[in-house]
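Please go through the protein record below and see whether the fold suits the sequence. Record follows.
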Amino acid sequence: MEAEKKYGQFFKDTLRGQQTIRLRMGLGALIIQERMQLTDRETLESIRENPYMQYFIGLPGFAMKQPFHHSMMTHFRKRLTEVLAELNELVASTGAKETKDDEDSNDASGGAQGKVKRSKKEVLAVQAEQQTMFVEAADESSKAGPPQTAAMPESPEATTFVSEAHLVSTASEATALQNQGTMLVDATCAPADVSYPTDLNLLNEAREKLEAIIDTLHEPFIGQTAKPRTYREKARKPFLAVSKQRRPGPKVIRKAIRLQLGYVGRNLAIIAEQAEVQELTLLSRKAYRDLLVIHELYRQQLHMYNARSHQMEDRIVSIHQPHIRPIVRGKAKARVEFGAKIAVSMTKGYAFLDRLSWDNFNESTTLIDVIEKYRKRMGFYPAVVQADQIYRTRENRSFCKQHGIRLRGPALGRKPKNGPTSEEKQVLKQDTGERNAIEGKFGEGKRKYGLGCIRARLAKTSESVITLQLLVMNLERRLRVLFFLIFTMQSRGRLALKAG
């Protein structure tokens, strides 16, 4: 109902005009598109030919015509950004709560690699560490004021005299009351469908767009005044001479950039003179938007050229998608990616979109907020957080220690002289294997659901596509769990019949 209300805010309460398309129809079409990786036209053709898809989007019966025009898919992506985010949160949180440990092949990931087996000594060590963190947290809270959590031992020294069995039972009871589950956190980039940007290519594209704008503004004065000279043929020759070289040197590139900056600056000056005589209302909305973007692009490129630098705040890397920023990732495949950076947390195989930003950010600053979101979703803090080294800052470690959360990974500070023991190496190896499940989730999204190349052109629609891809992955995950339950019940029934 809440989703229907938010969707209905875009429409007027009137009987005039086209009939409103229901939310189920628009949302169902978007899910079909992302699940099958189709274009807008292909999606509508598939729905027209398939009765099951028509039932999925809520049609009362089979029809041979398309339910709506393919251009409506863009409007759905613009309008349903918040609805998709809330729906993904609902599906993932409900699925994580309803999924039991025995329905997962791995408690943390929900993958297909089998449960990680730990020895009795490792289990006792983990539970003892949990107990120590609870005791220290209770001791600190008792100094600050009355405790708000369950009753704990009075001092850390008392735990050393407790028997092993009592320690295990006490730790398990405290964990059951306070912290439960494992949360995996990581960040990745969802690259946009843009060509690799270079300063020379951007300036050449800007010059060509400015030449088209000059032609549009001069069109009413053809035969009355002379057309402004733009040197378009002369300007293209040095660009082609450099772009055809396999590895042009820095001096050659700098000279070509200087020439293109001169042509772009000249064209901007011509447009400014034309604007004094002719209003810019002749330009289309897209052309006027490109003109504003090129003004900022020229300022940035001129500043970097004069400063002999390649760094710029809010640097524009695409004229038709000016919201995209370079995201430095340091990966072996691509050191820099161009798209939105997303922070994702995963619980029992379900992915939650915790933050989406077009600007680069340090993911370690999001860990505390992500843990608090986990508490709101599940009703308790996680017992274990699996994260990269970048998340293990002093602030995050202090927060996790205060709330009895185990942030897995080596401790800060100087490493011991003797190095880690064989048991510590084994635990670290198992922790790394469990944490890699979220990398597999990213790989699933990028290889199968289009997260590796976002084809939407607008910032709003791109955010909808990213959220929708996570939603489809969570729906697929829930479907696998449902099939697992069905097959398990069938196999148990067959075994019971054979035994009887």
Summary: Residues 105-117, 141-176 have pLDDT under 50 and may be disordered. Residues 80-116+179-194+321-412+419-500 form a domain with the Nucleotidyltransferase; domain 5 fold (CATH 3.30.420.10).
